[in-house]
Structures are given as structure tokens and as C-alpha cells.
Amino acid sequence: MSTTTEQRADTLNSLLRGEISAVETYDKAIKKVGDDPRGSQLQQMRTDHADAVARLREHIRAHTTEEPAESSGAWGVWAKCVQTTANLFGDKAAMKALKEGEEHGIKEYEKALEDESLTPACREEIRSNLLPRTRSHVTILDSLMDAE
With pLDDT > 90 as the criterion, what percentage of the chain qualifies? Predict the structure, then answer.
């Protein structure tokens, strides 16, 4: 396997693990808010992350010889810990933890766009779909925190 292909797989799998972690974290947050009206917005963001998981898995299969990651790995363990702690301190802290996760995702996508091993199709997916959605989540979470 070429170094370029290995790097591409590493980058895409790293993004995939982050998205899997986001799905897991939103599952916890949705459970916490219960019937609260904010739950539908959190559910939509969770759906966006689940879609990103599917899209990244497709790109890994199409553009590398590696298998897509199946779990969130170490990032998921840390994110769950942060979200669980935030949940203990209330809704605003939980929303702030979600926002910080989204901001981390933005940085990871921006960093991936600089990775020359990614194919133009992979970069386009990040640039036109994954990154804009993640940025919109920050705006939504800001409005949810302001509403409290």
C-alpha cells in the first residue's frame, strides 16, 4: 500500500471516529433533554452526524484499501466523559460541551482539507457537505444556549 493511500485512510478514519463519537454524544444529550423542545434540534444534528458517518465510510471504501473504523476509539471515550460530566452540571453545560465538540470537528475538517493525500472527491465532500453542516451546528447550539 502506498504512503499516500495510508495517509488518506488515516485522515478519513480519524474524521470517521470523530463523527461516530458525535453520534454517541448526541444520543446521551437527547436522552438527557427528554421531551424538551430542544430535543428535535439535537435529534437533527445527530442525524447529520450519522449521515456523515455513512458518507465517510463510503469514501474510505472507495478511495482506500482500508476498512472503515467501527468505533469512536479514544476520542469517543474522552467525549463521553466530557458529556457525562457536563450533564451533571445542567443543560447549559451540556450544550457547551456539544458546541466544543462541534468546534473540534470544524478544526479537524479544516485540517483534513490541507491533507494532500485526499482525493478531490473527498475534499469536495468535506468542503460542500460535512464542514458547512458542522458549522451550522455551532450556530444552532449557540441559539439553544441563548434561549436558556
Answer: 62
Cα dihedral across residues 12, 14, 19, 23: positive or negative: positive
Question: Please, are residues 75 and 131 in contact by the beta-carbon 8 Å criterion?
Answer: no
0.70 exceeded by pTM: yes
Give the whole-angstrom CA distance, residue 133 versus residue 53.
13
| Nine-digit cell string for 141 | 447550539
Cell numbers placing 80: 463521553
Helices (H), the chain: 3-33, 38-63, 73-88, 91-113, 120-125, 131-146
d(CA 93, CA 2): 44
For 67-93, give the DSSP string.
PPP-S-HHHHHHHHHHHHHHHHT-HHH
Give Cβ neighbours of residue 9 (< 8 Å, ≥ 6 apart). 60, 64, 65, 66
Instruction: Decide if 13 contacts 68 (C-beta within 8 A).
Output: yes
pLDDT digits (tens, 9 = 90+) for 136-148: 999 999 998 887 6
